[in-house]
Amino acid sequence: MRETLHELWTSLSSIPHAAQILAAAYVTYLVVLACYIVLQKREPVATLSWILSLAALPYIGLFVFYLFGPQKIVRQRLRRGRSREGMGTYDAVCPPDIQCTELARVGQATTGLSPSSATDVDWLVDGAATYAAIIAAIGQAQRHVNLEYYIFEPDHAGTAMRDALVERSRAGIKVRLLLDAVGSSKIRKRFLQPLLDTGAEVAWFHPRQLLKPLKRPWLNMRTHRKLVVVDGEVAFTGGINVTDEEDDSRNPSAYRDLHMRIRGHVVHSLQLVFLEDWIYATGQGQEHFQRGDLFPPTVPAREQGKIDAQVVVSGPDSAWEPIHRLHVAAIQEARQRVWLVTPYFVPGEAARMALTSAALAGLDTRLLVPKRSDSIFVTLAARSYFDELLEAGVRIFEYGPRMLHSKAFIADDDTCIVGTANFDHRSFRLNFELSMMYTDRRLTRELEAILQAEFDSAEEVQPVRDRSLWRKRLPEAFARLASPLL
Q1: HSE-up (13 A, CA, CB side) for residue 46
Q2: pTM of the model
């Protein structure tokens, strides 16, 4: 091998002006890619990080950029038709207080989904309770079951879910299952065959296309959503995937997580989110669906729901970063407290500024993260922000020994946001995410009780702690450098 490389170098060296040609090619490569990256109009830090990475890895960096670099997606949308689905406008639902109206307007303007209402929202803590509730709802389905998951494993949890779907599909119920091609990569056709044999439909979101050179692989843009809609009347969403790693009935070290069961008019919005993703992934037209089945008249009208609810979606098909924007806006509007729970904490400048400003203003500002997440690199990056937050007065808690996977937010006594999105660049910009925003005092009190128990079980980070250069500060600093790329 060494002799072959030596011969190759000798041959190149014999070419007249070889060094100048290679240098010109390198400069051209760097200038063209730098211009392309700059035109993406991402944050300056992220842009410079990519340019420096490409400069340090000539030509190899091009392949890395091809796989993971900034990409924009132009999606066929259902948003143009949402008004025809009777979604209405925020004025019909939002109470007349300014805070709610402003947040609702931001949510609607950035997602195209109107504020709505829920008649019932039940918090589901951990996987065992969540799987039992979902399987029970599937067992009662009379028209259809639509599912979208980032991780769906062919283990005990996945098999139980699949078998529930098989039973309903055999009974003539329409079943659609949309899986992320990377997150659910362990799934094989043999596992799905019993479901396919019943006539159910299975689709893959952004299949890997490494062997198709004319198509960029979407390795870095996944559907991170976890969504189940049964009969258009009841929906489930939150942070829990279908995997034994989150089944606390079988695994004592299962992730600590949070999910929701939702009924009411807002289920229409969740159905639309699934349909938009399904049509994008499959190419099927809207004529493939029957509106009467998807949006049944038995669903309560908006005015019948007592809980103000709004679906907030985000992804690389939108430049507005709606979930990120709603969090920052809610923090800025808070007057008493801000509680944030997230497994991955890599905030941008706007979010960091909002959190520290809330703490400096004397609000009860808390952050709960895992003591050790499933990514040591993300753990180090998160801890690199602790000093600034602690100095501003933010109380930081580390939950363990179980991995904390909940994504929850509370502002004051009446506003909460819960869903699939982590508090990091990947969730805000790269992944397709889904969060629920509620304005309701009773629901917020219930969530407060759940989160307070988590804070009580966590260890508070103290300003005076081990900050050795080699073991702490330097690894955290290097991890933070790459945070715009995480």
Answers
A1: 23
A2: 0.84
Cα 120–260–432 angle (5° rounding)?
125
- For CA atoms 406, 409, 412, 414, the dihedral sign is negative
Of these residues, 247, 248, 308, 412, which one is catalytic? 412
Q: Which of 277, 405, 424, 440 is catalytic?
A: 405
Q: What residues have CB less than 8 Å from 33, skipping those under 6 apart?
A: 51, 54, 62, 65
How many CB atoms are closer than 10 A to CB 9?
11
pLDDT at position 83 is 36
231 carries an active-site annotation: yes
Select which of 144, 174, 206, 226 is catalytic.
226
**407 tagged catalytic:** yes
Q: Is 212 a catalytic residue?
A: no
Determine the 3-state secondary structure of 362 from DSSP.
coil
User: Which parts of 334-398 fold into alpha helices (H)?
Assistant: 349-360, 376-383, 386-392
- Looking at residue 450, its pLDDT comes to 98
User: How do residues 123-145 score in pLDDT, each as one tens digit?
Assistant: 999 999 999 999 999 999 999 99
Average pLDDT over residues 101-123: 90
> Which residues lie closer than 8 Å to 96 by C-beta, 6 or more apart?
none
Mean pLDDT of the 13-35 span: 70
Q: What is the dihedral of CA 215, 216, 222, 223, to 10 degrees?
A: -30
**Which residue out of 268, 407, 414, 440 is catalytically annotated?**
407
Catalytic residue among 144, 174, 206, 224: 224
- In angstroms, what is the C-alpha Rg of the chain? 24
Q: Cβ(318)–Cβ(112) under 8 Å?
A: no
Torsional sign, CA 278, 284, 289, 295: positive
Q: Which of 180, 231, 247, 257 is catalytic?
A: 231
The verdict on whether 412 is a catalytic residue reads: yes
Q: Kindly report the three-state secondary structure assignment for every residue of 110-159.
A: HHCCCCEEECEEEEEECHHHHHHHHHHHHHCCCCEEEEEECCECCCHHHH
